[in-house]
Design brief:
The complex is a heterodimer of chains A (309) and B (270).
Chain A lengths: L1 H18 L1 H31 L2 E2 L6 E2 L5 H6 L2 H34 L3 H16 L2 H12 L4 H8 L3 H9 L12 H25 L3 H9 L4 H30 L3 H4 L7 H9 L5 H24 L7
Antiparallel strand pairs in A: 1-2
Helix pairs in contact in A: 2-14, 4-9, 4-11, 5-9, 6-9, 7-8, 9-11, 10-11, 11-14, 13-14
Chain B lengths: L8 H24 L18 H9 L4 H31 L5 H13 L2 H14 L6 H26 L2 H9 L4 H29 L5 H4 L6 H10 L4 H26 L11
The chains are: A mainly alpha (309), B mainly alpha (270).
C-alpha cells in the first residue's frame, strides 16, 4: 500500500514536471550549470583575482592586496617579445594548417563516397583523439639529428638542403628538434585535424546546385571555386582557425620538448607558477591569451564562423 | 557537395599526402618500440628486439602506479561528466529560453580556451582556498572538460528523440523513472556510451591541465612527459606510448561505430 502511494506520487511528480517544462529544464540544468559555474568560472575568477595580487620580492610570499603592480611587471620589453613570438607562431601555424587542411577537406567533402568517406573521416578523427603526448613524442623521433629526416635527406643526397635550412637565421638551429622549424612543424601536425573537420563540414554544406548554377552561368571551374566554393568554405576555415590559434597560443609542452628553448606565453606561465612560485605574474600573463582570444572570437563571430562550428 | 567529375591529380596527391602526414609519425612510435638502441633515436634502428616489452612488464614498477592513477581518474571524471553532460543535453535539447546560446557556449568554453588557462585557474583556486592536491583535484579538472564531450554526443541524440514516445509512455501509466529506464535510455544509450568512451580517452591521456592540478602525483601522461624531458631507456617510453595508443584507440573506434548512423558528432570540438 505504502509503495503504491509513493509510486503514485512519483508518477504525479513526473506528470507535473513534464507539464511544467520550464521547471524540468531548470532542474536538469542546475547540476551541470553549478559545476561549470563554481569549478570553472569560479576558477577563472580566482585567476583574475590572483593577477591583482603581488609577490613580495623579499619573502617570496603572495601579498593578498589589490594592486596593479603585477600588470606593470607584465609589460616589460622581454615579456612583450614573448607575447609577440607566440602570436606570430600561432598565426603562422594557423595559416599553414589551413593550406594543408583544405585539399583533404575538399577531397573528403567533394569526391570521397561510401567506404572512402568513412575512411577519410576516421583517418582525421583518429589523430585528433589519439594521445597528444604520444604525437609530440613521435616528432621528437622524427626530428632528432640521428633520426629519419636526416636519413632520408642523406639517401636522396639532399643533406645540403637540410643544412641550408638549419643555417637560416632565427628559424634555424643546431638540428630540427632544436629550431623554430621543428616547433612549428609539430604545432601544425598536432592541430591540423581541428582545421580539417570544420572546413570539411562547411564544404559539405555547399549545395550542388550552386556549383551547377555557377557552371551554367558560364563560370570556369576556377571561377566557380574562387567565387562560390571558397567564400562558402571560409566560415569553416575561420572556425578551425579558432582552435589552431588558441591552442598554439596556450601550449607549453611542445616548445619545451621540440624547439630552441626560447620562451612562449605557455612556457613562461608554466615556469612562473612552478619553479618561480610567482602565481600573480603567471595569472596576469594568462590574461593576455584570454584577451587575444576574446578579440579573435568577436571577429570570427562577425564572419559567421560560429554557425560553422 | 558531390562532383561527378573525378578529382584532379594534384588534389588527390595533396589530400593523400596530408593524410600520410597525419599517420606516418604514429607508425614510427611503433617501430622504435622494437629498436635495440636505447640512447638515441637512430634511424634505421640498428636491430630489432622484443626486450622492452618484458622490461616494462618486469623491471619498471614505476609505470604501474601512474597507470593505475590514470585509469582511476579517467573513470571518475567520465562518471561525473556522464551525469552532468547528459543532464545539460536533456535540458538544452528541447527547451528554448533566453540565454540558451550563452549556456551552451559555457559548456564548450573549457575546451575552446587553451588548457593552460583551465589549469592555472584551477591551481589559483586551490591555492586561494588552500585545497591540498589529491586524486580529486585532478578529477575536478578532467570532469570539467569532459562534460562537453558527453554533452555533444547526447545533444545530437536527444534532438532526434521523439517527444510523442515520452508522452505515450506517460499516458500508458509509466512514472518518470520508468519512462526514463524503458523509453529514453534505450534510445540515448549508445550515444551516452560513445560520449563516455571519448571522455575516458580524453581524460586518460590529458596532460596540460593535469600538471597544474596533480601536485606531486604522477599520472601516466605526466610520467611520459618526465621521460620526454629526461629520457632513460627510450624504447620503454615507446612501449608505454603503444599502451596509451591502444587504450585510447579502441574506445574512439567503438564510439565511432556506436554513433555512425546519423550525424557525426564525435569530436568536432575536443
Amino acid at each position: 500500500m505504502n509503495t503504491a502511494t509513493s509510486a503514485h506520487s512519483r508518477g504525479r511528480l513526473a506528470d507535473f514536471l513534464y507539464r511544467n517544462s520550464g521547471i524540468l529544464t531548470l532542474a536538469l540544468l542546475l547540476p551541470p550549470l553549478l559545476w561549470i559555474g563554481i569549478v570553472y568560472l569560479g576558477s577563472l575568477f580566482a585567476l583574475l583575482l590572483q593577477s591583482f595580487y603581488s609577490l613580495d620580492e623579499f619573502s617570496g610570499l603572495i601579498v593578498h592586496e589589490f594592486t596593479f603592480s603585477t600588470y606593470r611587471r607584465l609589460f616589460t620589453p622581454t615579456n612583450l617579445t614573448i607575447i609577440l613570438r607566440t602570436v606570430v607562431m600561432a598565426a603562422a601555424v594557423t595559416i599553414v594548417s589551413a593550406i594543408v587542411a583544405f585539399p583533404i577537406a575538399y577531397y573528403a567533402a567533394r569526391y570521397a563516397r561510401g567506404g572512402w568517406k568513412a575512411l577519410f573521416y576516421l583517418a582525421v578523427m583518429m589523430p585528433l583523439w589519439s594521445s597528444y603526448l604520444v604525437k609530440v613524442y613521435a616528432w621528437k623521433l622524427i626530428l632528432a639529428k640521428e633520426g629519419i629526416i636526416t636519413w632520408i635527406a642523406d639517401k636522396l643526397h639532399l643533406g645540403w638542403v637540410l643544412d641550408g635550412l638549419l643555417a637560416l637565421p632565427v628559424i634555424g638551429g643546431s638540428s630540427l628538434s632544436f629550431s623554430y622549424i621543428g616547433t612549428f612543424l609539430v604545432f601544425v601536425y598536432i592541430w591540423l585535424p581541428y582545421m580539417i573537420l570544420p572546413t570539411q563540414a562547411a564544404l559539405e554544406r555547399v549545395a550542388k546546385n550552386f556549383i551547377e548554377a555557377s557552371a551554367d552561368l558560364g563560370a570556369t571551374p576556377r571561377q566557380t571555386f574562387s567565387t562560390v566554393i571558397f567564400p562558402l568554405a571560409l566560415p569553416g576555415i575561420i572556425a578551425g582557425s579558432i582552435f589552431t590559434f588558441s591552442l598554439t597560443l596556450g601550449d607549453y609542452i611542445i616548445p619545451q620538448i621540440v624547439g630552441n628553448s626560447r620562451p612562449f606565453i605557455g612556457t613562461t606561465v608554466y615556469a612562473l607558477q612552478g619553479t618561480a612560485g610567482d602565481i600573480p605574474l603567471a595569472a596576469a600573463f594568462t590574461v593576455v591569451p584570454v584577451i587575444i582570444m576574446g578579440i579573435y572570437l568577436i571577429v570570427a563571430r562577425r564572419m559567421g564562423a560560429f554557425n560553422a562550428l | 557537395m558531390h562532383s561527378e567529375t573525378p578529382a584532379s591529380l594534384p588534389l588527390k596527391m595533396a589530400a593523400i599526402g596530408g593524410l600520410l602526414f597525419l599517420h606516418l609519425p604514429l607508425a614510427l612510435i611503433f617501430l622504435y618500440a622494437f629498436t635495440t638502441e636505447e640512447k638515441s633515436f637512430q634511424f634505421p634502428p640498428p636491430g630489432l628486439t622484443l626486450r622492452w616489452f618484458s622490461v616494462v612488464w618486469f623491471e619498471r614498477p614505476d609505470i604501474w602506479g601512474p597507470l593505475w592513477l590514470s585509469v582511476k581518474v579517467a573513470t571518475l571524471a567520465t562518471l561525473i561528466a556522464l551525469v552532468l553532460g547528459t543532464l545539460a543535453a536533456a535540458a538544452l535539447s528541447r527547451a528554448k529560453f533566453f540565454g540558451k546560446d550563452s549556456i551552451s557556449l559555457l559548456f564548450i568554453l573549457p575546451i575552446a580556451l587553451p588548457g593552460i588557462i583551465t589549469g592555472i585557474s584551477l591551481r589559483s583556486a586551490f591555492d586561494i582556498m588552500s585545497v591540498p592536491f589529491s586524486t580529486w583535484t585532478i578529477v575536478l579538472g578532467h570532469a570539467t572538460f569532459c562534460i562537453v564531450v558527453v554533452y555533444n554526443n547526447a545533444l545530437a541524440r536527444f534532438r532526434r528523440l521523439s517527444g510523442s514516445m515520452i508522452e505515450a509512455s506517460m499516458d500508458l501509466g509509466a512514472n518518470g523513472p520508468q519512462t526514463f529506464r524503458h523509453v529514453i535510455l534505450p534510445q540515448i544509450g549508445s550515444a551516452l556510451l560513445a560520449g563516455s568512451m571519448l571522455a575516458f580517452a580524453l581524460s586518460f591521456d590529458e596532460v596540460i591541465v593535469t600538471t597544474f592540478t596533480a601536485g606531486q602525483q604522477t599520472t601516466l601522461p605526466i610520467w611520459m612527459l618526465n621521460e620526454l624531458i629526461r629520457p632513460r631507456q627510450r624504447p620503454v617510453t615507446n612501449v608505454v606510448a603503444l599502451i596509451v595508443i591502444a587504450v585510447t584507440f579502441l574506445p574512439i573506434l567503438a564510439a565511432y561505430y556506436l554513433t555512425r548512423e546519423g550525424e557525426h558528432t564525435g569530436g568536432t570540438g575536443k
